[in-house]
Design goal:
The complex is a heterodimer of chains A (521) and B (452). Chain A has 521 residues and is of the alpha+beta class. Chain A has 14 helices and 15 strands. In chain A, helix 3 packs antiparallel against helix 4. Chain A starts with a helix and ends with a helix. Chain B is α/β, with parallel strands linked by helices. Helix content of chain B is 46%, strand content 16%. In chain B, the strands form 5 sheets. In chain B, strands 7, 8, 11, 14, 15 and 17 form a 6-stranded mixed sheet that branches. In chain B, strand 12 and strand 13 form a beta hairpin. In chain B, helix 16 packs antiparallel against helix 17. The N terminus of chain B is likely disordered. The chains are: A alpha+beta (521), B alpha/beta (452). At the A-B interface, helix 5, strand 5, helix 7 and helix 8 of A face strand 1, helix 2, strand 2, helix 3 and helix 11 of B.
Chain lengths: 521, 452
């Protein structure tokens, strides 16, 4: 292609010897224009990421969602694995402590001394999990209570619960820890500050999943852990999700449960959905019920630089619109985004498949993004249209202007080469016609005619074929069709015929042809 | 007065900022800086209601739903802590200590933090708050937040130290021992009651003070002494020595609760009967005391002013943080100023402060509180609290501690070392051991050396 263009340009620069005909020139320019416009369009599509309506937003959100779901899935999976490890260590330590005291698990209830010993010996295990925190709290619940005689004691369970004192974006090594559940004695021994809403024991009626874990516990911990949907930590404004792993002894006896707390604040700070300070995107992990995502059942995060949608506990009604989903809150706020299923608890666990991860932006941002995208497309269409206009002007200048100039030159009686074959040919023709006066048979120089006849033998095979067809009275067009050659080739042969037969013009040639017909006739 | 601190912007930059701000103000108080379609997000660290269902987060949510949405501002609470932890977290972030996160856009803190992180890093509220608005605030609160002529902390809520008493147990103790609430007006009465309570309860401590530096500082000054000498504690002051000896004597006899943490938890676990703490502690009290066998008794609170020595004048220290804003773009500073103004508007400020045990920061609201011109509180504890606050405002003088860079660390170390040294000697002494003046003198010297 390029060598062809180069050749054409070379020809163009080599004066009239290889002048290009107008049709070819026009085709060349139109092809170049089409290639130019196509290149621009492709460039815009691939480099500026232009596509109609909200496709760009959908593609970007799909990427965000995919990445976020992978990250959360890995995080919750790792946390579950750490919880299972904690459960194993806790079971071992409990059995060791019970053996040390010559007691069995049934002896724990109503035995403050044994409960304190269990808490004391398992404290380090729980605390160590918070030294390099990947969660906001850790706990062990023994399935026993310090005082069975109290009303409601069946819902009161002893154990220990430690929480990070401060949750900020930093992850300090050896962070401050608050004693949230457990006996005074162990807290004081370890110099811990009490949580403002400290309680001695766990109120299990506020944690329905605790009972589920205990009842369905098996030795295979890999299939027995649960992620408790978000709940309000009693007496606080904190919303937390919690991992519950059963603690199962060597003999299969369930000693209680342990796990980790992931507070809403911790999740928000540690799992931002994006680091882009200009983005207003929300990431959510929550349970889905039909077409509704229960945002209060899960945790949400915004952007690392601060944007946060604050969905509260409002349920998100979803509506599918093409590749995107519209999420509507009861307070009237609407978001546009996507969601996909994720797995938190093992597949055997009830409701395991109801968790979803969602990423969405405020609807107004989506509309602005579409407007911007469409405006960009419109702008580039205008630019391409302008470029097409310029090219048309250029083409007309290169094709039509020489034509007009040629006509003007003819009118003015000045023959100037234009490098356009058709015009140059016309100019030659007119020039020749203007140079040679009209000739009649009577005026013909017979010696020239004889020379003409003699020279016929000098014509090449092809020139002879063309000449013979002229002799038979065919027009140039008919000769081209007959011989399956182009008009330009005919013209080329004509020039040679004129030169070899020493004919000054087509008119003279036709006169000699006429004379030959007579002679032959 | 011009700021001479290193890092303080030069005249050119200040002038540029001023021009920018004036331009903003000229275009309709710069609402053009904000776009409701593209809200600016401001992160906030605060200290109101740490670990509880405090009303501050609800207030922020209300702001975001109303004014924030209308103007284009989202306030994102990214840390709720206590004043001590937030102080150290801010200092760590400002000094870029390893592991520290970045500074929030806005935070609630005490003036001591301002000195530790550098006042020049903070926005001057005077740039965004017209003088007539500033005059609505109680002038002493504004002065407290002013450094080098720049208002760097906007007063939001103020607290006092008060004495919380577990009235459920105290009433029983009073009936059997003859001690009365009136005895708790003086430290002499407190120490005497502590001795009796120790015997009555079978060895329990009578009271705890959340901030032991305040005990020594206020009582020394109340008795006419000079607690500080420049940026150092004046251990040569006889009044300081006296109040410290009296406390040490009670502590070594078991009358003082030497546990760490706040007095609220020590009271709620039955470890002690009384506690001196911020009025804001009222938010943290449960309505029960829980004992190790999980039995509970109701916790009814009685709230009194902090005792003073008989010869001392009534003196209190006013506490409570202000809203600081890290210098930023005019857009963020303007957004922060809208939030600050909204937070301190009487209609928003009063319900908030009275739900959290604080005092309002504007003259009109404060006077109404002092005159008890408030709808009655539903809780008896809150009624009692605001009655005490009202009395203290009428009867007490207020002391403003000096401010210097190491004040926060000194306050923490003073409490910790004093608690450690008292605990050490308490463990080494028999219950009936005589505590001689020589022993107290020796402990005082040891304390001085360890603090140095």
């Amino acid at each position: 292609m390029f060598s062809y263009i180069k050749k054409i340009l070379e020809i163009r620069n080599n004066d009239s010897k290889y002048s290009i005909n107008l049709r070819r020139r026009l085709i060349l320019y139109l092809v170049l224009m089409a290639v130019g416009l196509l290149s621009c369009a492709l460039l815009l599509v691939f480099t500026l990421n232009l596509s109609p309506s909200g496709d760009n937003v959908a593609v970007a959100l799909a990427k965000d969602l995919s990445y976020y779901e992978e990250r959360l899935s890995a995080y919750f999976g790792d946390t579950a694995a750490r919880g299972i490890h904690l459960s194993t260590l806790a079971a071992r330590e409990m059995e060791r402590t019970l053996a040390e005291h010559g007691a069995s698990f049934d002896d724990i209830s109503d035995n403050p001394r044994l409960i304190t010993a269990l808490q004391r010996n398992t404290f380090a295990i729980v605390r160590n999990t918070l030294l390099f925190p990947d969660c906001s709290g850790a706990f062990i619940i023994f399935d026993a209570t310090v005082n069975t005689s109290l009303p409601g004691s069946e819902h009161s369970r002893c154990g220990l619960y430690l929480k990070l004192a401060n949750i900020t974006v930093s992850r300090p090594v050896n962070p401050g820890i608050l004693w949230t559940r457990g006996t005074h004695e162990v807290a004081l021994e370890n110099g811990l500050i009490f949580h403002n809403k400290w309680e001695l024991e766990f109120a299990t009626q506020r944690m329905p999943f605790y009972r589920k874990v205990i009842e369905s516990a098996s030795k295979n911990l890999m299939e027995g852990y649960y992620y408790h949907p978000a709940m309000r930590l009693h007496g606080t404004s904190e919303q937390i999700m919690a991992l519950f792993v059963p603690i199962v002894g060597k003999d299969g006896r369930t000693y209680g449960a342990c796990g980790f707390e992931i507070s809403a604040m911790f999740f928000k700070l540690m799992h931002p959905v994006s680091a882009d300070p200009d983005a207003r995107i929300t990431g959510l992990i929550a349970r889905r019920q039909g077409q509704t995502i229960l945002s209060g059942s899960g945790l949400e995060a915004g952007v690392a630089s601060g944007y946060f949608a604050d969905l509260g506990n409002g349920d998100l009604r979803t509506e599918q619109e093409g590749p995107l989903t519209t999420f509507s809150l009861p307070d009237g706020r609407t978001f546009v985004g996507m969601y996909k299923k994720t797995t938190l608890s093992p597949p055997v666990v009830e409701d395991a498949g109801s968790w979803v991860v969602a990423c969405f932006i405020p609807k107004e941002d989506y509309i602005i993004a579409i407007y911007k995208n469409n405006a960009k497309i419109l702008l580039y269409c205008v630019a391409i249209f302008g470029m097409a206009g310029v090219l048309c002007w250029y083409i007309s200048r290169k094709c039509i202007v020489p034509l007009v100039s040629g006509i003007d030159a003819v009118k003015a009686g000045v023959a100037q080469k234009t490098n356009i074959h058709e015009i140059d040919d016309l100019l030659d023709f007119l020039a020749m016609n203007s140079q040679v006066p009209d000739v009649s048979v009577e005026d013909v120089d017979m010696s020239a005619f004889y020379a003409f006849r003699r020279n016929i033998d000098t014509l090449s095979k092809m020139e002879k074929s063309v000449f013979d067809l002229y002799l038979q009275g065919h027009s140039t067009q008919e000769i081209a069709e007959e011989l399956h050659i182009s008009i330009n080739t005919i013209k080329f042969h004509n020039k040679n015929i004129y030169r070899k037969l020493n004919v000054p013009s087509r008119k003279a040639l036709m006169l000699y042809v006429q004379m030959m017909r007579r002679v032959q006739g | 007065m011009a700021c001479k601190r290193p890092g303080c912007p030069g005249g050119g930059i200040r002038l540029l900022r001023l021009v920018l701000i004036i331009c903003c103000l000229l275009v309709g108080c710069s609402d053009s800086l904000l776009d409701p379609q593209k809200p600016v997000t401001l992160t906030l660290w605060h200290v109101f209601g740490a670990q509880t269902d405090g009303p501050m987060n609800g207030l922020v949510a209300r702001f975001n739903r109303t004014v924030g949405r209308e103007k284009g501002i989202v306030v994102n609470v990214t840390a709720v802590s206590n004043s001590t932890d937030i102080h150290f977290a801010l200092v760590a972030a400002a000094k870029k200590y390893p592991g520290a996160g970045s500074l929030p856009d806005m935070f609630i803190t005490y003036p001591k933090t301002v000195f530790a992180i550098g006042p020049e890093r903070l926005m001057n509220w005077k740039d965004w708050l017209p003088e007539e608005k500033r005059l609505e605030f109680i002038s002493s609160f504004v002065e407290e937040g002013t450094v080098d002529g720049r208002l760097v902390l906007l007063p939001v809520a103020k607290s006092l130290n008060v004495l919380f008493i577990n009235a459920t147990i105290f009433d029983q103790f009073a009936m059997e021992s003859g001690v009365s609430y009136d005895d708790l007006a003086t430290w002499e009465g407190m120490f005497a009651a502590a001795t009796r309570y120790y015997k009555w309860s079978g060895g329990k401590a009578f009271f705890k003070y959340d901030d032991w530096l305040h005990y020594s500082m206020l009582n020394t000054v109340s008795l006419g002494g000079n607690f500080f000498q420049g940026e150092k504690i004046n251990f040569r002051d006889e009044r300081f020595r006296k109040v410290w000896h009296r406390l040490a004597e009670s502590a070594l006899s078991g009358g003082v609760c030497l546990l760490g943490g706040y007095s609220t938890t020590a009271m709620m676990t039955g470890e002690t009967l009384c506690g001196v703490g911020s009025t804001a502690s009222v938010l943290y009290f449960k309505d029960t005391v829980t004992y190790p066998d999980n039995t509970t008794i109701p916790l009814r609170l009685k709230i009194l002013p902090v005792p003073t020595f008989q010869e001392g004048r009534l003196l209190a220290v006013q506490r409570g943080g202000g809203l600081g804003v890290i210098k930023s773009t005019p857009q963020k500073e303007y957004a922060a100023s809208i939030f600050g103004r909204w937070l301190t508007d009487t209609e928003n400020n009063v319900p908030f402060v009275t739900a959290t045990g604080y005092s309002p920061v504007k003259e009109d609201a404060h006077m109404a509180l002092v005159k008890e011109d408030w709808p009655s509180f539903t809780s008896d504890s809150y009624k009692d609290l605001y009655k005490t606050i009202s009395n203290m405002h009428m009867q007490h003088s207020f002391y403003v501690p000096p401010l210097f860079e190491g004040y926060g660390e000194m306050e923490r170390d003073f409490s910790e070392l004093q608690r450690e040294i008292f605990s050490k000697y308490r463990k080494s002494l028999r219950n009936d051991a005589q505590i001689s003046p020589e022993l107290l003198h020796s402990i005082f010297q040891e304390f001085e050396q360890s603090l140095d």
